[in-house]
Amino acid sequence: MRVLIIGAGMLGASTAYHLAQLGAEVEIVDEEHQGKATLAGAGIVCPWATKADEPQWYEMYAAGARYYDTLIEGLKERGETSIGYGKVGALVVAEEEAEFDAAEERVLRRTKDVPEAGTISKLTPEEARKLFPPLREDMPAIHISGAARVDARLLAAAMLRAAVSLGATFRRDNVTLAMKDDKPVCIGSSGEVIEADEIIVTAGAWASRILQPLGLHHPVQPQKGQIVHLSLPGVATAKWPVILPMGSHYMLSFDDSRVVIGATREDSSGFDYRVTAAGEHEVLSAGLKIAPGLANATHIETRIGFRPAAPTIRPILGRVPGIQGLTVGNGLGASGLTVGPFAGKCLADLVAGKNLSASLDAYAPQGRA
Ligand code: FAD
Domain spanning 2-39+153-220+312-363: which superfamily? Predict the structure, then answer.
């Protein structure tokens, strides 16, 4: 079976890797549009503190975190060492006592009988600052030891490399879709038809453009995120935990003395690939309020990504009804680096006709109107 995957972000790269493992003949096409979400995403893998409560979305979010150990182990066994993954833990912090208590109740409820979440403990402000020194002096924290962070650029590249080592091919191109003899076909930018038995569209915020010629209304829009990268030269940040305050901003650290503060959530942004004064101000103000110790850090860059935002928080995953050989995976929104690897495995199993480890019924895409 020959499968064509359009889009090699976290979701498409994982789908390709898992399908190649199942023995399919895989071709991956990716244009790497400016603002590809996987290149900008922060990389927090910690579903257990979220305030959002949609049950079927949360099921996928939690399953995504659970799958990470298996994924990382499998890639390491294949010789992949540059993955950027670290189980560094997370500190949940709140400015108001009532919010802190509610967060503690939520985390304890969500992590009961969830071994991958690790241990949950309450830290004094001094204990919290030992783990994350720039933190404000008056903030106690809830520590989740199983939380992780991942450099999505490295992980997606590792999955693609692994897929290619298993026989998949990769081409850089901006393709589109058309109907021919009642079947979808993929057309390259030079007009050539790229043959496939099955087509999987994992094209993120751009997917509606290529599904529209098939008569499909695909309701995924770009949601712009601006995310600030700082450096603390000479400081060993690799093991610092993720910081999860109550709002939508957060902090996490990487191996190269880098601390990241995220992020704006700009609906109706279109594909406006610009760092704005307001975006930069919003993110830095939120970060420095919680971690004033970062005030003297060096600003390295601000990345921009377009989250693929569906009308509801639930992702869209499955075969498109009424169109033979077409599968869509999209709408991973703000949680796609957590959900993407597992969702990609589910799409691979679905297309290869294997038993699914999770039902995708709740995430089914719409057919033609
Ligand atoms: P993308 O990564 O956008 O990939 C889609 C690819 O399809 C692109 O490369 C594009 O060029 C390609 N494509 C599109 N159309 C075509 C075409 N016609 N031909 C060829 N190629 C095409 N998630 C978390 O779990 N934790 C986080 O901490 C987190 N932080 C985030 C912070 C920010 C600032 C942002 C923006 C996102 C964050 N996310 C996070 C969400 C996560 O990054 C996304 O949900 C995820 O990366 C989406 O992956 P994707 O593969 O669906 O899309």
Answer: FAD/NAD(P)-binding domain (3.50.50.60)
